[in-house]
Design brief:
Length: 440
């Protein structure tokens, strides 16, 4: 049942196609347009800032590599042999990891918040929710079921298995319209959940589970409050591997970018708190050398330090029970880091946040991207039959209601790369009218 597709078809390429279903999933992902667009979407720094740092594409490739290494580490651990039936294949975990950021819009966090603001009356916007929608509806490479991936691959991408409307804050911020078309960004952070309009797809995903498991799986860790979104409580075993790999890539490889670009220097990282966290791990034995490696002028030396930290996290994984009440092992078990490893990773992630994500440079880029997305949405929604491309124009005209129509506009903008959004903004608002036939 986990290899079933919503279309009911296998899409094999003839009798000589010996690939298993998850290998075909992986092939579909790497050949789809939305995956290619990740090469020109912001990870942390803008894609025009240089040619060393990560984009969404290279970050996704690194997450896939780390996810595969975590899987092999778990398989090699003799303590986990009793769960051998649970382990995904390399192709399956690769597919899930490659897809984890595919729904993110241009300009990273700024674009996400801008679209959530514009969709506030029509179901909202959130990058992970957009991933499910993109895979099941928007990417039509394989017909009317999106990429028509296997059930288990789609389940692994469902990071927050709760409806958007059940986790959104109960009181909405005041809407302040301004001449500059900007918003208070922290007022419109999206909740984490799937769009209400994707309920049919989620229902299909959860068919193999009992009613008890479905209810528990979609329960909340925290209920929404007046000015705070609720939070999902669980995700699947495969998703937990992807989520951990994503955190490791963010905390370590994005740290590498920051060190290379001199956004983080030695005094920022090498603090008593950092030394104390290292002392609780096997890295403590040569922590001075490790820190020297991270800030060495030679790239290959820095790589040695980065690789050692990544390997430490990969080998510090364990399988834990999420809730004994789950009947299905895919939901009952998740992969977690050892407490001391988790504390160290959280410290590294906080460093990246403090010195990169929350830096003036990154916030300036984010603000600019937010403004571009807000103005694009306003322009396109005011004249959708003129400014949408042919495919989305037809979908807009076929929309059954206003919410569905605005969702088409949102899909179109979310699919753009940073550069495409900038260029369309320039053409619409008079900064550059030279290129008129570019296609998304």
């Amino acid at each position: 049942m986990w290899t079933e597709r919503r279309s009911g078809q296998s899409h094999q390429r003839g009798p000589q196609d010996h690939r298993d279903p998850f290998e075909r999933d992986r092939t579909r992902v790497i050949h789809c347009p939305a995956f290619r667009r990740l090469q020109r979407k912001t990870q942390i720094l803008g894609t025009d800032e240089g040619d060393f740092h990560r984009t969404r594409l290279t970050h996704s490739l690194e997450v896939a590599s780390i996810g595969t290494s975590i899987l092999r580490q778990l398989i090699a651990n003799s303590d986990h042999h009793y769960l051998s039936h649970l382990f995904p294949s390399d192709d399956l975990i690769n597919t899930i990891c490659l897809l984890h950021d595919i729904g993110h819009p241009p300009f990273g966090h700024g674009g996400e918040v801008a679209l959530n603001f514009k969709m506030r009356d029509y179901g909202g916007f959130e990058g992970n929710a957009q991933t499910l929608r993109l895979l099941t509806k928007i990417e039509t490479s394989y017909g009317g079921f999106g990429l028509d991936l296997t059930r288990r691959a789609l389940l692994g991408t469902l990071k927050y298995p709760v409806r958007f409307s059940t986790v959104v804050e109960t009181e909405r911020p005041n809407v302040i319209e301004s001449f500059s078309k900007t918003i208070r960004i922290n007022d419109w952070l999206p909740p984490k959940g799937y769009y209400d309009c994707e309920q049919a797809e989620v229902d299909w995903l959860l068919v193999p589970f009992t009613e008890q498991d479905k209810t528990l799986f979609q329960s909340l860790k925290n209920k929404p409050e007046a000015n705070q979104h609720g939070r999902a409580n669980y995700h699947s075993f495969d998703c937990s591997i992807m989520d951990m790999a994503d955190d490791i890539a963010y905390g370590v490889h994005d740290l590498e970018d920051a060190i290379h670009l001199q956004l983080i220097n030695r005094v920022d990282l090498d603090t008593p708190a950092f030394r104390q966290l290292l002392s609780a791990t096997p890295l403590e034995k040569h922590q001075n050398q490790l820190i020297d490696f991270l800030f060495d002028e030679a790239l290959y030396i820095r790589k040695m330090g980065i690789g050692e930290i990544v390997n430490y996290f990969i080998t510090s994984t364990e399988i834990q029970v999420t809730n004994d009440l789950f009947e299905n092992d895919l939901l009952k078990y998740n992969v977690e880091l050892l407490p001391e490893a988790k504390a160290l990773l959280n410290y590294l992630k906080q460093c990246v946040y403090n010195y990169v994500i929350d830096s003036q440079e990154a916030r300036t880029f984010e603000y600019g991207g937010q403004t571009v997305v807000l103005r694009l949405f306003e322009a396109i929604s005011s004249n959708p039959t003129g400014l949408l491309n042919n495919k989305n124009r037809e979908l807009f005209l076929q929309a059954q209601d206003e919410a569905s129509a605005f969702r088409i506009v949102c899909d179109y903008i979310a699919n753009m790369t940073d550069e495409y959004a900038h260029r369309m903004h320039e053409r619409l608002f008079g900064f550059n009218t030279r290129t008129i036939f570019e296609r998304l």
